[in-house]
Design a protein that fits this description.
This protein has one helix at 3-15; strands at residues 26-27, 31-34, 44-47, 56-72, 77-93, 100-106, 111-119, 125-133, 137-144, 150-152, 160-162, 167-172, 184-188, 194-200, 211-217, 222-223, 226-231, 240-242, 245-251, 254-255, 259-264, 269-270, 276-279, 283-293, 298-301, 305-310, 313-315, 319-320, 335-337, 341-347, 353-357, 367-368, 371-372, 376-385, 392-401. The radius of gyration is 39 Å and the shape is elongated. 3% of the residues lie in helices and 51% in strands. It has 1 helix and 35 strands. The strands form 10 sheets. Strands 1, 2, 3, 4, 5, 6 and 7 form a 7-stranded mixed sheet that branches. Strands 18, 21, 22, 24, 25 and 26 form a 6-stranded mixed sheet that branches. A 5-stranded mixed sheet has the order 28-35-34-30-31, with no helix packed on it. The protein has 404 residues and is mostly beta strands.
């Protein structure tokens, strides 16, 4: 069968679907949605501002008998006949209650049933509360006194399903509760004072005014963190340097911190927000900051940050610009500390030596003899020896000579 023939056949079949495959109950409701039966095969739910004047309609393409039934809560079935219209193509139910309805449409070729549910929502949002709070978690809950609306899964087990009015949370500053659509949630305790707001029943707007509530939450949690800057070392962001290693620590913790405890490994402690500490001897030092909110008794501790104090430090750049911006990165030279002996040899890509030196304070200016070296990749070998026994470094790598 050709693709064209298949396509034409499909169109003809779809076009020949029975009228009742497309039919449904209609209403003058201000809002409608589908039920959420677990097994699917859902029905329309209609909402009205006033049940007086509410009406339901059903049409047929051929003359039919329409029989309307109301839901019987006692039996869990639609067996209460409320209206019958015969020999017509349209039937309208003019008087309805907040209930479920079934309409049976019988055209003489067989009967087909259609269902719907009808409600008058009443929105009443009481407040936002915090039923539980710890240093780690906070539960936020929207307390609603909105009218309870219930329909039943008559197509399966008859279970009751509450209509969801809908929630939408926002917060300032933005946090984990922002844009949530639940009535209650446990979240990580914020470290900032936060204004929480929730809107209830917004799906019914503008016919009904949503309920709105807000809550000013005063934080009790803290979260420890810190920053640092090593003084007089090769790299200001390094966690290593030559002993004595001087480091400026600064507290960057979140929350209402009122107490600090710094532990610098076995080197000592301090109890101020921004200490300056000197690691006198070579070694590795795990630094930990503990912060507390003395009012709430909440505390937080950082993971250990390892600082290394060496006697010998050599750091090598990976690029330099010898012929651009004089005075700025125009020599290839190391940053160093506590170097007793030093040698550096630089080769071009063919292995020819283009520079050698034994003074770490001096570097290569990018020239070979009196000529400017070609831009590109060069290779270095550096050997350094410290003042202490066993302090030796051998570094090999590439450096890029860049011409801007």
């Amino acid at each position: 069968m050709s693709h064209l023939f298949k396509k034409l056949t499909l169109l003809l079949v779809v076009g020949c679907l029975p009228w009742y495959m497309h039919a449904q109950i209609t209403s003058n409701a201000f809002f409608s949605e589908q039920t959420v039966y677990p097994n699917g095969n859902n029905d329309p739910v209609f909402y009205y501002a006033d049940i007086n004047g509410a009406q339901l309609s059903m049409t047929s393409v051929t003359s039919s008998t329409f029989t309307w039934y109301a839901y019987n809560g006692a039996s869990g079935t639609f067996d209460n006949v409320v209206q019958t219209d015969a020999g017509t193509t349209m039937s309208t139910l003019l008087t309805i209650a907040e209930n479920g309805y079934r309409v049976e449409v019988n055209s003489g070729a067989g009967a087909v049933d259609y269902y719907c549910w009808n409600f008058v929502p009443v929105i009443q949002l009481d407040s936002i509360g915090v039923p539980s709070e710890t240093c780690n978690n906070v539960r936020l809950t929207a307390y609603s006194k909105s009218k309870t609306l219930v329909y039943y899964n008559h197509k399966d087990d008859g279970s009751a399903i509450n209509v969801d009015y809908g929630y939408l949370w926002t917060s300032v500053p933005t946090g984990p509760m922002d844009q949530e659509q639940v009535d209650s949630k446990l979240i990580a305790a914020p470290t900032d004072d936060t204004e929480y707001s929730v809107e209830h029943g917004a799906k019914f707007a503008p016919s009904l005014t949503p309920g709105v509530a807000s809550y000013e939450y005063e934080s009790i949690a803290v979260e420890a963190s810190f920053e640092y800057e090593t003084e007089g070392t090769a790299d200001n962001e390094a966690k290593e340097g030559s002993a004595p290693l001087v480091v400026r620590f600064s507290d960057s913790s979140l929350g209402k911190v009122s107490d600090w405890e710094w532990t610098f490994g076995e080197a000592g402690k301090d109890f101020v927000p921004d200490p300056i500490f000197t690691f006198q001897k070579a070694g590795e030092y795990p630094v930990v900051l503990i912060v507390k909110n003395l009012d709430s008794e909440c505390e937080s501790e950082t993971a250990p940050e390892i600082f290394t104090a060496n006697e010998l430090v050599v750091k090598v750049p990976n690029a330099f610009t010898p012929f651009s911006s004089p005075g700025q990165n125009d020599e290839f030279k190391v940053l160093y500390r506590s170097v007793n002996k030093f040698s550096m040899v630089i080769y071009n890509r063919w292995g020819r030596k283009v520079y050698s030196g034994s003074n770490p304070a001096q570097g290569w200016d990018g020239r070979i003899g009196s000529q400017k070296a070609e831009p590109g990749v060069y290779f270095y070998t550096i050997e350094a020896q410290g003042f202490n026994e066993g302090e030796n470094l051998k570094l090999e790598g590439a450096v890029h000579l860049v011409v801007n």
